[in-house]
Amino acid sequence: MKVLAVLRDVDRVLTQQAATRIPTTVGKVLSVVEEAAESTKLWCGAALVMAAVGGSRGRAAAAMGVTAMSLAQLVSNGLGKQLTNRPRPPKQWFPHEEVEDRPDSSSFPSGHTAAAVAFTAAVAPVWPAAGAVCALPAAMVALERVQSGAHYPSDVAAGAVIGLTGAELVRRAARRVCCADGAEWQATRAVVQFSQPVVR
Predict the structure, then answer these.
(1) What's the angle, vertex CA 68, arms to CA 175 and CA 58, rounded to 5?
(2) pTM to 2 decimals?
(3) 4 falls in which pLDDT band (50, 70, 90)?
(4) What is the DSSP secondary-structure string of 157-168?
(5) So what's the pLDDT on residue 179?
(6) Burial environment of residue 115 by CB neighbours within 10 A (0 to 12, 13 to 18, 19 or more)
(7) Helices 24-37 and 41-53 sit at what angle, rounded to 10 degrees?
(8) What is the CA radius of gyration of the chain?
(9) Which one of 96, 137, 145, 154 has the lowest number of neighbouring Cβ atoms within 10 Å?
(10) What is the pLDDT of residues 80-95, one digit of tens each?
């Protein structure tokens, strides 16, 4: 119980600091990025760009990112929020009007963060440069969710864990498929070579 009490105190302090210490201009930039990421628009748009300009690597990165993002969204919004009923942070902690525009669903976990982290973490191993570009808006989305009053830091942390886990599961699944395809190709090639007549 003491551990939970400490966690609640840390959540409260960090949330209030984010609400009051982040400059208004920075908050507006965070809001613009978050709005772009609403309903995964930003990440789907990034996937389209990667697939269009990145060749086979871009298409692979886009597919990995979208798959991981979809899995993270399913776990966070379809499961996590249904199993928990955590109220959003108190509105009186926030001096800005953005707090009035937050959803009524459970605060735990942060679906925005889960999607952002899952997409970025799945893209990065396939196309590191694209992953690095996505990392900045992903971090901004996570910060905005606390600054705007939509989530506690622990909600965001849980969303990040879900996103990282989703990306890892998708990477492992893709690796198994690739290994299976590679083994099948090697076996087929061996059969073809063995069946070919020897030309001397």
Answers:
(1) 70
(2) 0.85
(3) confident
(4) HHHHHHHHHHHH
(5) 64
(6) buried
(7) 70
(8) 22
(9) 96
(10) 999 998 999 988 888 7
